[in-house]
Design a protein that fits this description.
Blueprint (H helix, E strand, L loop, with lengths): L14 E5 L5 E4 L1 H7 L3 H4 L4 H4 L4 H13 L3 E9 L6 E13 L2 E9 L1 H47 L6 H22 L8 E3 L1 H15 L4 E6 L7 E3 L1 H19 L3 E15 L2 E13 L27 H11 L3 E7 L2 E9 L5
Parallel strand pairs: 7-9
Antiparallel strand pairs: 1-2, 1-5, 3-4, 4-5, 6-8, 9-10, 10-12, 11-12
Helix pairs in contact: 5-6, 7-8, 8-9
Length: about 350
Amino acid sequence: MKSVPFPGLDLLATAVLLLDQRLTLRYVNAAAENLLGLSSKNVVGHSLSHIFPGADELFAAVGYALEHETSFTEHEMALAVAGGHGRLLASCTVTPAESGPARLVIEFHQIDQQLKIAREERMHLQQQANRELIRNLVHEIKNPLGGIRGAAQLLEHELTKLELREYTQVIIKESDRLQGLMDRLLAPHRPPQNGPINVHEVLERVRSLLLAEAPRGIAIRRDYDTSLPEITGDKGQLIQAVLNIARNSVQALQGNGEVVLRTRIARQATVAKRRHRLAIQLQIIDNGPGIPEDLRERIFYPLVSGREGGSGLGLTIAQTFINQQQGTIECDSRPGHTCFTVLLPLPDEA
């Protein structure tokens, strides 16, 4: 079946699909091809259900528009595209039409990008507030903490019974532990030491550390695009950031499962509210139980941990380091699949 020629629609930035009375696709414009990740020649002639399997909201919108002979808009619709880019979030308008064989017009406006930008802005503001809170907290704690440790040491020298020194040792050791915690809280605020970075060298370093620490039931698998160019940044900070994320993944597996370290090139990526032609995408993926739903929006906040005994600092520090590299970090989690995605922009000349 040939596509219906509507040359004017190809100039639109809105994704447009035209369907006949059998809900068979007769035309898609260039914006729709880009949005759905599908070629016109591969989808024209196929039914709507073939292209959007299981899209109940879309078919409900189509049914309403046809039944009432009026336009219908769904402002937030999740769609799974067969053979395309996967899931996308879009606003959808369905309108009955009478133009040649076309009986229905469907328009999509992607809203993933707007939501992503808004989420990045919220995370940036939250991180600024976190940094200020951490600085104030550290300075309020460090001075009395040194006094407590010093007093415990003096008291220990005055004790004649050795068994009583166990208690002063508890105070000293806990003071040292808190001192280490304070140092870790302040660590992200040093300026980065930039230089050339091969991201695969970073991942291989992380992988070797994970293999040394992880139980035997955990596999650490590579999935690299070895053609990626070098980037400029602080190698030590990037290693620490990826290591913090990967350690969380290993701990979530509870001794059995798989962690995948993946690299890809991302095209036309929005990072920190700027559009970049190319970016390096690092992903740390595990097949563990997933992050509890009540924690998913707060996992990058300081002192928030889903693990008993966790400090809640690993992901906060990772996010700070990634932001200092001019990158972003996001998390998508469901039972059986948790994916942390780091985007690091490449200069346009790359």
